[in-house]
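Input (structure):
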């Protein structure tokens, strides 16, 4: 684990037992440089099989991935909020996507409910072909059409750290952008 991981895990409200790495689950940090590499590789793989007109990024983590993929894939970018209501996930309505091919992206998927809700919103907005992509999947979880990394580890991304200056006297390196 990196120096700031413990602080990020606290900020993410990860239970203490989850922070202890075992043989089956550890903590993997994907900093900005590694994120750039993963996004570049993912965009190349997607581009060989699918050319989206629009990329829809699920707020929060999907916005970073969607923004990184939109340029190389020469696609428009839109964001969407997905709310969890009990066992259901519901996405906010999207603007008109009539006949456009859409790639819905998020940072991590486990059950696939968030991606499914965002895809449903895209289809309701008139999207044609709709596919999905994430940075991380779990070995026994949902697998989108495209993904970069399969792991059981808890993944901490660069955006999980606060990049603004924290309260004075804070000892959390993530709060000062280190």
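Output (sequence):
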């Amino acid at each position: 684990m990196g120096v700031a991981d413990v602080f990020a895990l606290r900020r993410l409200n990860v239970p203490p037992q989850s922070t202890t790495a075992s043989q089956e689950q550890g903590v993997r940090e994907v900093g900005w440089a590694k994120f750039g590499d993963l996004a570049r590789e993912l965009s190349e793989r997607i581009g060989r099989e699918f050319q989206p007109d629009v990329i829809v990024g699920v707020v929060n983590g999907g916005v970073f991935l969607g923004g990184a993929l939109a340029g190389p894939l020469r696609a428009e970018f839109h964001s969407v909020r997905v709310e969890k209501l009990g066992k259901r996930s519901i996405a906010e309505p999207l603007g008109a996507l009539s006949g456009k091919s859409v790639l819905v992206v998020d940072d991590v998927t486990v059950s696939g409910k968030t991606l499914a809700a965002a895809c449903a919103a895209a289809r309701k907005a008139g999207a044609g072909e709709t596919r999905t992509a994430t940075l991380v999947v779990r070995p026994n979880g949902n697998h989108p059409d495209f993904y970069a990394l399969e792991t059981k580890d808890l993944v901490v991304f660069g955006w999980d750290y606060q990049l603004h200056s924290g309260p004075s006297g804070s000892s959390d390196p993530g709060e000062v952008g280190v």
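Notes: Residues 26-158 form a domain with the Rossmann fold fold (CATH 3.40.50.2020). The first helix runs from residue 5 to 11.
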